[in-house]
């Protein structure tokens, strides 16, 4: 009987945490839409602490990506994939991670060149990815961006078609972020 009372007592706390997370999420959305990524990062992080859901990790990763802190973005995108292993947007998130890893290696190589004044120490060989031929008039970033936007739109459409409204924001900008408060 006491166990049942404890479970019932815990339910309002979960609802309060969920409501607080919703408010933090909405605050983060506002900052994100205004390009205020540091403030959005704070709000999304607070939302995750209040109601930990994998989608918040994706949002946090997006903030770090926009702040060009690619190591942290990679960390949070991997956390998102680890916490939601069956997510349908896995290929797109993995492509984002691969892109950020290339950018991070390029940044580290540039820093090494700046520090040493050479391209690399004699005993270090930097492996560069093989060049990819770009279609004339398109850059690789536009292609990757298009893939991410299409994938996010597909995820959002899938969520919309799956039904189940829990009163949480569903008007996410296509390609911006993925957020799903529903338990899987």
Gist?
The chain is mainly alpha-helical.
Describe this structure in words.
It is a single chain. 25% of the residues are buried. The protein has helices spanning 2-33, 37-50, 54-66, 70-83, 90-116, 140-162. The chain is built from 6 helices and no strands. The longest helix is centred in the N-terminal third of the chain and has 32 residues, at 2-33. The chain has 184 residues and is mostly helical. It has one domain (2-162): Serine Threonine Protein Phosphatase 5, Tetratricopeptide repeat (Alpha Horseshoe). The radius of gyration is 20 Å and the shape is globular. 67% of the residues lie in helices and 0% in strands.
What's the helix and strand layout?
Elements: H1 2-33, H2 37-50, H3 54-66, H4 70-83, H5 90-116, H6 140-162
Helix pairs in contact: 1-2, 2-3, 3-4, 4-5, 5-6
The SS-based structural class is mainly alpha
Task: Please indicate the percent range of residues in DSSP E strands (runs of 2 or more).
Answer: under 5%
Got a strand count? 0
Under CATH, the homologous superfamily reads Tetratricopeptide repeat domain
> What is the CATH architecture descriptor?
Alpha Horseshoe
Total helix count?
6
Classified by CATH, the class is Mainly Alpha
């Amino acid at each position: 009987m006491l166990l049942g009372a404890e479970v019932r007592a815990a339910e309002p706390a979960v609802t309060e945490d969920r409501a607080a997370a919703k408010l933090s999420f909405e605050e983060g959305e506002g900052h994100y839409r205004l390009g205020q990524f540091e403030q959005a990062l704070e709000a999304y992080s607070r939302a995750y602490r209040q109601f930990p859901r994998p989608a918040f990790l994706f949002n946090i990763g997006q903030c770090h990506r926009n702040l060009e802190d690619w190591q942290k973005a990679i960390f949070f995108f991997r956390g998102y994939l680890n916490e939601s292993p069956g997510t349908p947007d896995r290929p797109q998130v993995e492509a984002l991670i691969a892109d950020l890893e290339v950018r991070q290696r390029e940044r580290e190589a540039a820093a090494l060149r700046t520090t040493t004044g050479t391209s690399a120490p004699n005993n270090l060989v930097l492996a560069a990815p093989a060049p990819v031929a770009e279609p004339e008039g398109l850059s690789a970033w536009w292609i990757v961006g298009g893939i991410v936007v299409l994938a996010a739109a597909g995820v959002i459409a899938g969520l919309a078609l799956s039904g189940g409204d829990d009163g949480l924001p569903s008007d996410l900008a296509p390609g911006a972020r993925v957020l799903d408060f529903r338990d899987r």
